[in-house]
Amino acid sequence: MLTRDEMLSHLKAKRPVVAPSMLKCDFGNLRRETELLDSAGSSLLHWDVMDGHFVPNLSYGPMVIERVRPLTKTPFDAHLMISDPAKYLDEYVKAGCEAITFHLEAVPQPVSLLREIRKRNLVAGLAINPGTPFSAAEPFLRECDLFLVMSVNPGFGGQKFMPEVVPKIAAARALAGNDLIISVDGGIGRSTIKQCADAGCDVFVAGSSVFDEPCYTAAIAELEQTATGSRSAC
Ligand code: DX5
Ligand code: ZN
Question: pTM of whole model > 0.85?
Fold first, then answer.
């Protein structure tokens, strides 16, 4: 497992990072999916945790993540779309996540939880929904390692990208400089990734645009190339 500092260097060195959203993988075959993502060269796996309360959908919890942990060395980011992330923090630590991201809408005073995550030597992430203005997160960015801008309303994969959130990426980059890892999640694909990259995003969560493709290696490579501008979007 990578420490927080190692994770931060890893993500910065590998950017643009396409992080497959495990919500869209084949749950009947997690071992095979993990192997395929490893051979595709994934730098981060994104685990969407939903509680049926903070979002209107249920997914999986730490028991599933913990069983997949020994199958790969690729770091894990748990995206907690749950109402009380502090209560469950240590279960995700024990499951072997290197990064833990929770929502400002669930924890309006996030400083102590961000500090608790950092204290455990993990990357501390804060997410905001499309309807939450950047100004609401701004006071807390210095306590974050990762800032996740949601480009769909959380709860489901396969939704349409909301371009109106892109200025939040640019605002975070302008304010926080290069140290902050900025991520975007929801509707990321060949036609939407470049505008986020141009705004300063480092990590692109991608569900449908990886798992709906026949070859994960080609899908991830094409997204990364489109983000860097070495291939034009089509
Ligand atoms: C939405 C999740 C996303 C989602 C991404 O609540 O946080 O990670 O699964 O899926 P796509 O890329 O299909 O929008
Ligand atoms: Zn997510």
Answer: yes
